[in-house]
Design a protein that fits this description.
About 35% of the residues lie in helices and about 15% in strands. With about 230 residues, it is an alpha/beta fold. A seven-stranded parallel sheet has the order 3-4-5-6-7-9-8, with helices on one face. A hairpin with a 6-residue loop joins strand 1 and strand 2. Helix 3 runs parallel beside helix 4. The chain is globular, with a radius of gyration of 17 Å. The termini are far apart.
Length: about 230
């Protein structure tokens, strides 16, 4: 599988295809610093925050650059230009699937609004956004997401989040993407690559909950130590 890399014309946002896990799916990553307050629950276990990945400075540099670009767009309120920039790339490459934030997370509610606009303008592309920003997912926002056939948003739930936060995630009504080394809730297990599974990208009459096994033996070991305490 060969990697393809593109950059948007105006902002230089890096988009890739050919992820070894998710397959030939256009995807975008930011650095883990964009994950926000809820990252405190997964910070110790995050494989992208591990010493191994931190040592891969050349590979991680584009993620950090994407994070910087998105924060700058938000601070300067340039979301309209971002929408035009991203739509131009997606249309020119005729991308059938697009995963937003393989690493990192949405930087603001305005970014989520912008991706909804992008999805509306690119009806032949299916988008999936996993996010921990459940505090931004009010009823009105969820209704808007549900009205867009080619956009799926899942609330990311990490195994050590307090019950009241898990309850809040479930009350959004959006699908849950549950990360753990054990499938506690018996959700459909992630079946890579995305191009053959399509579970997270396809809307249905029931919630498309998915179980995402934790990456890396180190993370799994830490999880077991956490549970034994």
């Amino acid at each position: 599988m060969g990697f393809k890399t593109w950059r948007t014309k105006d902002f230089g946002i890096m988009v890739r295809s050919g992820n070894t896990g998710i397959g030939e799916v256009a995807n975008m990553s930011k650095d883990v610093s964009t994950c926000g307050a809820l990252s405190s629950y997964c910070k110790e276990f995050c494989y992208m925050g591990s010493a191994y990945y931190k040592s891969m400075k050349k590979a991680m540099a584009p993620h950090a650059e994407n994070g910087r670009i998105f924060r700058d767009i938000d601070e300067r309120d340039m979301w309209k230009l971002f929408i035009f920039d991203m739509v131009r790339l997606i249309e020119s490459k005729r991308l059938p699937l697009f995963r937003v934030d393989v690493n990192g997370d949405l930087v603001s509610p305005e970014e989520l609004d912008a991706w909804m606009a992008v999805a509306n303008l690119c009806p032949t592309t299916k988008f999936w956004i996993p996010t921990k920003r459940l505090f931004w997912l009010d009823r009105q926002t969820v209704d808007r997401i549900n009205d867009i056939d080619n956009l799926s948003v899942s609330v990311s739930v990490f195994f050590n989040m307090p019950k009241h936060i898990v309850d809040m995630a479930q009350k959004t009504g959006l699908p849950i993407a549950y990360c753990d080394s054990e499938n506690k809730y018996k959700y459909k297990v992630c079946n890579k690559p995305c191009t053959t599974c399509m579970w997270c990208y396809t809307k249905g009459s029931t919630k498309r909950n998915v179980f995402l096994p934790m990456h890396g033996t180190e993370a799994v070991k830490k999880r077991r130590e956490f549970q034994s305490v």
